[in-house]
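queue> pop job 88
queue> type: inverse folding (structure -> sequence)
queue> payload:
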C-alpha cells in the first residue's frame, strides 16, 4: 500500500487556505454556486471528467486510471447553515446569518486535496475514482436528489466512502464502526382538532391543548415501554402551537416532532405506536387527530468489509490505539441514500482540541475545529483509495 502522509503534509497550507476561504463564504442548501464553481475549476485543471449541475449545484469529478479496476466514490458535502457565527475567528463568515457550523467547509477542502493526490497517481491507478461534491446535506436531502438524477451511474461505483470531521472526538483519533452508525429520521406533523370555546366555560368546549399535553406525556412511553432496552430509538416533540388569547380555548393545536431509529423492525414498531398513542389520546379527550409521518433519511449502515479497509488505512495513519469502534449517533445523514445502493463506510474524523477551546458542538454559533484533522483525514482517504486502486 502506498503511503500518502508526506504528500498530504505538502498540501497542509493549501488545505487550510481552501477550508478558510469556504468558511468565509458559506452557501445554503442548493445555493452552493461559488463553492461548486471553485471545485469544478480545480477538477478540470487536474484532468478530471466533470459533471456539474446534478441536484442544481452538485459536482462529480471522474478520474480513470491507467488500468481497469473498481470504481471508488468519495462524498464531500458543501452546504452551510442559517446560523450567525460567533467564533471571532479571522476567517469567520462574511455572510450575515450564514455559517459553516458543521465542518462541510473542511470536507470540500478534503475533496480538493484528494483530487490532487489521486491525479498525481493516475497512471498507476487500476480503476476509477469518482469524487462527488454534494449540495444540501443539511435537511435538503441533496444525496437523494443526486441519486435520482443519476449520480451513481456512468460510472457505477463499487465502493462508497465518506467522512465527517467530528467534534465529539479529539483530533488525532478516528472511529470506524461496522453496521449502523447514524439513525433513520422521520418528521411527524400532527393537528389535534377540538372545539373552541370560552376559557371560563370548558364544559362547552373540547380542549385540544389538554389533549396535546397528554400526547406529549404518552409519547414518552413509546421508547421506554415498546423498544428493547438493548436497542435504541428517539421520539421527540419539537413544537406545539395553539391559541392566541389567555381566555379562549382554541379549536386546534399543531404539533411537530422527529423519530430516530436504527433497526427496520424497531422503526415499524415506533411508527405504529406513535400513531396509536396520538390517535388514542386524542379520542379519549373527545378530540380528533390528523397525523402525517414523513420519512427523511434511512440509517447509515457501514459494510463490514469496507470498514476493514478504512480501519487499516486509519491505523496506518494515526496508530491502532487511536482508532475506535462503536461511535453511533441518533443524528441522521443523507449519505445513507448512496449507501443503500453501494457498500460503503462512513467514518468519524476527530477534530476537537480542548486546549484551544475547539469543543463547541456541531450547529453551534461557536463551532470550529482543529485543522490538523484535515491532513490526517486526507491521508486516511488517500490510503483507503490506494487499497482499492493502487
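queue> result:
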Amino acid at each position: 500500500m502506498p503511503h500518502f502522509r508526506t504528500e498530504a503534509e505538502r498540501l497542509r497550507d493549501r488545505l487550510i487556505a481552501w477550508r478558510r476561504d469556504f468558511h468565509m463564504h458559506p452557501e445554503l442548501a442548493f445555493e452552493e454556486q461559488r463553492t461548486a464553481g471553485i471545485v469544478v475549476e480545480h477538477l478540470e485543471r487536474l484532468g478530471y471528467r466533470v459533471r456539474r449541475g446534478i441536484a442544481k449545484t452538485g459536482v462529480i469529478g471522474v478520474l480513470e486510471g491507467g488500468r481497469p479496476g473498481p470504481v471508488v466514490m468519495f462524498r464531500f458535502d458543501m452546504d452551510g447553515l442559517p446560523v450567525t457565527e460567533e467564533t471571532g475567528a479571522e476567517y469567520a463568515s462574511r455572510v450575515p446569518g450564514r455559517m459553516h457550523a458543521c465542518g462541510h467547509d473542511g470536507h470540500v477542502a478534503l475533496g480538493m486535496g484528494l483530487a490532487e493526490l489521486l491525479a498525481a497517481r493516475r497512471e498507476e491507478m487500476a480503476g476509477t475514482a469518482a469524487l462527488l461534491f454534494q449540495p444540501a446535506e443539511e435537511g435538503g436531502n441533496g444525496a437523494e436528489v443526486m441519486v435520482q438524477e443519476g449520480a451513481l451511474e456512468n460510472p457505477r461505483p463499487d465502493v462508497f466512502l465518506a467522512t465527517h470531521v467530528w467534534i465529539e472526538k479529539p483530533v488525532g483519533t478516528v472511529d470506524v464502526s461496522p453496521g449502523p452508525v447514524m439513525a433513520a429520521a422521520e418528521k411527524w406533523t400532527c393537528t389535534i382538532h377540538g372545539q373552541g370555546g370560552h376559557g371560563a366555560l370548558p364544559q362547552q368546549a373540547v380542549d385540544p391543548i389538554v389533549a396535546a399535553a397528554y400526547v406529549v406525556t404518552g409519547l414518552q412511553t413509546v421508547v421506554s415501554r415498546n423498544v428493547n432496552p438493548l436497542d435504541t430509538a428517539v421520539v421527540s416533540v419539537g413544537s406545539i402551537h395553539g391559541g392566541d388569547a389567555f381566555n379562549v380555548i382554541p379549536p386546534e393545536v399543531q404539533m411537530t416532532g422527529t423519530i430516530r431509529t436504527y433497526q427496520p423492525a424497531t422503526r415499524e414498531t415506533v411508527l405504529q405506536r406513535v400513531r396509536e398513542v396520538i390517535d388514542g389520546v386524542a379520542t379519549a379527550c373527545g378530540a380528533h387527530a390528523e397525523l402525517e409521518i414523513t420519512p427523511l433519511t434511512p440509517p447509515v449502515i457501514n459494510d463490514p468489509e469496507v470498514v476493514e479497509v478504512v480501519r487499516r488505512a486509519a491505523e496506518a495513519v494515526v496508530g491502532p490505539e487511536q482508532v475506535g469502534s462503536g461511535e453511533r449517533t441518533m443524528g441522521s445523514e443523507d449519505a445513507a441514500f448512496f449507501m443503500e445502493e453501494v457498500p460503503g463506510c462512513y467514518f468519524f474524523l476527530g477534530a476537537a482540541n480542548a486546549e484551544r477551546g475547539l469543543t463547541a458542538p456541531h450547529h453551534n454559533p461557536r463551532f470550529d475545529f482543529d485543522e490538523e484533522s484535515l491532513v490526517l483525514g486526507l491521508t486516511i482517504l488517500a490510503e483507503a483509495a490506494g487499497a482499492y486502486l493502487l
